[in-house]
Amino acid sequence: MKWRGRRQSDNVEDRRGMSGGGKIIAGGGGLAIVFLLVKMFFPDAAPFVDSIQQSQANQQTEQVEQRELTAEEKEMGEFVATVFADTEDIWTKIFEENNLGTYEQPKMVLFSGAVETACGGASSASGPFYCPGDHKVYMDLTFFEELRTRFGAKGGDFAIAYVIAHEVGHHVQTLLGTSAKVRQLQQSKSEADANKLSVCLELQADFYGGLWAHYNKSNLEVGDIEEALSAAHAVGDDAIQSKMQGHVVPDSFTHGTSEQRMKWFMKGFKSGDIKQHDTFAEEL
């Protein structure tokens, strides 16, 4: 993918190389003992002291150790920031062209090992994900090496671009209300039927990833789409289950088969038409 020298997003927060050492409450230790004594000997002051302690409890600081990123890590950060900028520009255009309102830009957090989000804590083992609670895409970029070495994806920069575009697709679903509707429907379904709805949601995000690639054709290079398809194949439920447990259980699928994921990415890429996004009508 052609990316050097182009605009990079300002919505990327790079936390790689940072490791938390636990939280410290401001005003702890000896000051806490003073507060306790004041409350014991001056009961009328207790409400005032409580309010001070609560305020201090909210002013937590975190010990953080940080290492210098390698030149390769810095370059990767610049690449994903460029891809993210492309998603901002392209989805703003798609929303305008289809009268979908104003596209609200998400943010992306790059992390190492583990991260806290509005959706709870997560580790790199979770893989890249989107949290609707804070409108952020979270990525530990070591995932892509795992994808290549363990699950057989070709690798390459556009495999990373595909995953970013897929996660941004979940942000689009949040803005359009699709995600909320699906979650509501799932509450009244059996586990198997709820899983089918999850599959349709994921396939639609793949479609949106392909749609983004369609609008970004001028920056594509030979082999880019093959890299995306290889990644889509590698993260199919059937491919992962076969690799991890030696057999597949279709009723437990939540993301779609390799064939489905490649199919919907290519449908978005070839059509360039957001109106063809109804995975629910075709797959249920």
From TrEMBL:
* Compartments it resides in: Membrane
User: What keywords is this UniProt entry annotated with?
Assistant: Hydrolase, Membrane, Metalloprotease, Protease, Transmembrane, Transmembrane helix
Query: Which parts of the chain span the membrane according to its record?
Result: 21-42
**Is Transmembrane a UniProt keyword of this protein?**
yes
Main localization is membrane
Top-level taxon: Bacteria
- A GO molecular-function term, please? metallopeptidase activity
Lipid bilayer topology: Single-pass membrane protein
Protein name (database record): Metalloprotease
Q: Which organism is it from?
A: Flavobacterium celericrescens
